[in-house]
């Protein structure tokens, strides 16, 4: 072969290789994980019990990817009952089949079987998490998802020296499944947790716990990225570090304009990316997490701690400094923090807030009661505790809604969830007996592909009013407005932030207040929407958003995988 021909051949081969490399980089890498669900013994709070875990750890393993990657997780259920796994905040474009909520997009994975889920990352970047989505199994079955910038790019803030994940969790001395089963049987409140945890450890303030308190080692002068996840079942949290300022730079897999603060408020389901610089005298400093609970409902009013531990030689203090955090019912502190969050909205990380709305939804959020004859239940007035969206308490079907929708199965759900309440009243005032008893139904809210959706979530004073962290599967959305009292559709939109609103997947609806979110319905499928306070979700504070297919295969739900876990009545 002549040199000229060989040179041409090598050039052509190199071009093919380069194009393949660029295509691979654009499509992202593929990763494989094995999740083994099994019972494992742990000793905490002076006693030993068996809990359901993934791969024998609490919290579970971390999934680590770059933006745009794909992960295949083979879930092997070696536990005692059916379970599903949800990838919280991952949009899963056109792929609701692997989203995970039980009897919404799939039926449970039966014991002694396996199910492979395809987790498709697209626009997310930052910190998300995964958790079980069956009954209350997520109390012990959860872990972090870390989404790094694409190769060749970096963070929109100075590179930290190191990073660490802090998962806020909790510990129940009793069997978690038995706790919720008993509550649902009697109609009363479920038992509260016995301790909160940071990375699985309760911390110094609980019995039999100070020998295992989680410690975060740091070097003087270095800056660390803390990925904070609230996996707690029923309590929002204030978090701070003694004598150290926090710089919040991200939330729910999206970047924020940096804000400096001495505490954060994080709801169940949310994540926060926080920078902290070790700029104090070398010593030990408490990291503390305490509940925010502006409610008359029972809650765990204890404090979990970890220790920020400087490396080097120094005299250990006799008393470790403790952060000053807001009181458990400081609604203003929670609200003042939340309203400071703003999207980065830069050239590299633009926002796309819908301006011309084609679908408007007004949805009320309430805690309710179901009447029990002869006052035979354990809730208020001898009734059963319930919860609702737009006064409809969601009834979970026996066949998953995605299958029913895709296969046109009758009598599984109705697609007539209303765009607004059937009647209006003073939602946040003296509600009297208005809508104390909800309708019980399995209803889905349907929108067209590419609708520009505005949804107002209105908290009510029905039942025990409190802050409700609402989570929407399949989407991130922009929080364009928030306020107290009843939403006014004439004046409140004048205060909307349409320039740089935060883009999140979970938002706290203020106690007796409202939140407005906007998003483009560009992800066809069946997507669960629910309160991330687990007791409220168990009582029916849920619905389903169905986004219809677009006009092409590329804008339609993907076909189902060859195997889906069977439904008992399908």
TrEMBL record:
Residues 1-26 form the signal peptide. One of its GO terms (biological process) is lignin catabolic process. Binds 4 Cu cations per monomer. GO terms for molecular function: copper ion binding; hydroquinone:oxygen oxidoreductase activity. Transmembrane segments: none annotated. This is Laccase. Keywords: Apoplast, Copper, Glycoprotein, Lignin degradation, Metal-binding, Oxidoreductase, Repeat, Secreted, Signal. GO terms for cellular component: apoplast. It comes from Quercus suber. It is found in: Secreted, Extracellular space, Apoplast. Lignin degradation and detoxification of lignin-derived products. The keyword Endoplasmic reticulum does not apply. Its cofactor is Cu cation. Residues 38-150, 165-313, 428-549 form the Plastocyanin-like domain. It catalyses: 4 hydroquinone + O2 = 4 benzosemiquinone + 2 H2O. PANTHER family: LACCASE, MULTI-COPPER OXIDASE. Belongs to the multicopper oxidase family. Pfam families: Cu-oxidase (PF00394), Cu-oxidase_2 (PF07731), Cu-oxidase_3 (PF07732).
């Amino acid at each position: 072969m002549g040199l000229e021909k060989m040179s041409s051949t090598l050039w052509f081969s190199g071009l093919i290789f380069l194009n393949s490399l660029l295509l691979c980089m654009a499509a992202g890498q593929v990763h494989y994980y094995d999740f083994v669900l099994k019972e494992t013994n742990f000793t905490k709070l002076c006693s030993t019990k068996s809990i359901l875990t993934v791969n024998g750890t609490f919290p579970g393993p971390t999934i680590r990817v770059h933006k745009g990657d794909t992960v295949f997780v083979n879930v092997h259920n070696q536990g005692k009952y059916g379970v599903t796994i949800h990838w919280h905040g991952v949009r899963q474009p056109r792929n609701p089949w692997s989203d995970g909520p039980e009897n919404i997009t799939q039926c449970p994975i039966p014991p002694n079987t396996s199910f492979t889920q395809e987790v498709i990352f697209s626009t997310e970047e930052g910190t998300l998490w995964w958790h079980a989505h069956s009954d209350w199994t997520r109390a012990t079955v959860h872990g972090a998802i870390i989404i790094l910038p694409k190769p060749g790019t970096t963070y929109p803030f100075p590179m930290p020296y190191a990073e660490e994940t802090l998962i806020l969790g909790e510990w129940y001395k009793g069997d978690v499944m038995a706790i919720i089963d008993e509550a649902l049987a009697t109609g009363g409140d479920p038992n509260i947790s016995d301790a909160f945890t940071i990375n699985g450890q309760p911390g110094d303030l609980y019995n039999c716990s100070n020998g295992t308190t989680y410690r975060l080692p740091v070097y003087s002068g270095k800056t660390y990225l803390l990925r904070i996840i609230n996996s707690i079942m029923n309590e929002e949290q204030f978090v701070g570090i003694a004598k150290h300022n926090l710089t919040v730079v991200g939330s729910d897999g999206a970047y924020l304009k940096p804000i400096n603060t001495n505490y954060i408020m994080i709801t169940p389901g949310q994540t926060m990316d926080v920078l902290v610089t070790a700029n104090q005298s070398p010593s030990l400093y408490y990291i503390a997490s305490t509940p925010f609970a502006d409610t008359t409902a029972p809650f765990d009013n204890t404090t979990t701690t970890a220790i920020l531990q400087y490396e080097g030689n120094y005299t250990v203090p006799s008393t470790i400094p403790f952060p000053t955090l807001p009181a458990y019912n400081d609604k203003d502190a929670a609200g003042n923090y939340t309203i400071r969050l703003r999207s980065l909205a830069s050239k590299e990380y633009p926002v796309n807030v819908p301006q011309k709305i084609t679908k408007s939804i007004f949805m009320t959020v309430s805690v309710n009661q179901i009447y029990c004859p002869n006052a035979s239940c354990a809730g208020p007035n001898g009734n059963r505790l319930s919860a609702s969206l737009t006064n409809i308490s969601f009834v979970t079907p026996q066949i998953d809604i995605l299958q029913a929708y895709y296969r046109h199965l009758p009598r599984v759900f109705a697609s007539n969830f209303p765009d607004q309440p059937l009647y209006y009243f003073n939602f946040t005032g003296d509600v009297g007996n208005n809508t104390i008893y909800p309708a019980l139904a399995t209803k889905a809210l349907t929108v067209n592909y590419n609708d520009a959706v505005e949804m107002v979530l209105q908290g009510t004073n029905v039942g025990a009013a409190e802050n409700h962290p609402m989570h929407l599967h399949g989407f991130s959305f922009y929080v364009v407005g928030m306020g107290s009292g009843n939403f006014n559709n004439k004046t409140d939109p004048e205060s909307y932030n349409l320039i740089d609103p935060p883009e999140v997947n979970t938002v706290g609806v203020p106690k007796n207040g409202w939140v407005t979110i906007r998003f483009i319905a560009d992800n066809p499928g069946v997507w669960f929407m629910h309160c991330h306070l687990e007791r409220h979700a168990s009582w029916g504070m849920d619905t389903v958003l169905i986004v219809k297919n677009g006009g092409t295969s590329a804008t339609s739900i993907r076909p189902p995988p060859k195997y889906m876990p069977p439904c008992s009545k399908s």
